[in-house]
């Protein structure tokens, strides 16, 4: 027969002390709500607040590097169908990224 733990019954003074300590722990200058506090959302206002960190060249170079490695592996195995599929996928993804980057650049100029 297992004994279940009984709830802790603190006297009023003990409860008050615990509440005060927790309040001191959680109430810091950082935790005080300000007028400028906004929930984290990807809104136009949020996009205006910070500049995107990755450059167009870096993004497109990363894409090319990723596809180049996959293409080289397909080339080593001699799989022409995979090579053709990767070539098409790369060009399609490059076009998508260029469109998205154009939109990002236009929004940053506003």
Explain this structure.
The chain is mainly α and 110 residues long. It is built from four helices and no strands. Helix 3 (56-77) runs antiparallel to helix 4 (80-109). The longest helix is centred in the last third of the chain and has 30 residues, at 80-109. It is elongated and about 80 Å long. The model has no long low-confidence stretch (mean pLDDT 79).
Fraction in helix: 55-70%
Computed CA radius of gyration, to the nearest angstrom: 28 Å
In DSSP terms, counting alpha (H) and pi (I) runs of 4 or more, how many helices? 4
Tell me the β content: under 5%
Overall outline: elongated
Terminal CA distance reads 71 Å
How many E strands? Answer: 0
Q: How confident is the prediction overall: mean pLDDT? A: 79
Structural class: mainly alpha
Low-pLDDT regions: none
Helix and strand pattern:
HHHH
The biggest beta sheet reads: none
What descriptors fit this protein?
mainly alpha, elongated, 110 residues
Can you lay out the helices and strands and say which pair or pack?
Layout: H1 12-26, H2 44-49, H3 56-77, H4 80-109
Helix pairs in contact: 3-4
Q: Can you give me a brief rundown of this structure?
A:
The protein is mainly α and 110 residues long. It has helices spanning 12-26, 44-49, 56-77, 80-109.
């Amino acid at each position: 027969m297992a004994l279940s733990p009984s709830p802790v019954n603190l006297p009023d003074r003990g409860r008050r002390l615990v509440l005060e300590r927790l309040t001191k722990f959680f109430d810091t200058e950082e935790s005080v709500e300000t007028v400028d506090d906004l929930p984290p959302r990807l809104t136009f206002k949020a996009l205006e607040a910070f500049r995107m960190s990755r450059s167009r060249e870096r993004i497109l170079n990363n894409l090319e590097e990723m596809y180049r490695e996959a293409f080289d592996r397909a080339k080593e195995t001699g799989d022409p169908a995979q090579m053709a599929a990767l070539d098409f996928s790369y060009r399609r993804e490059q076009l998508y990224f260029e469109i998205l980057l154009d939109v990002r650049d236009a929004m940053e100029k506003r």
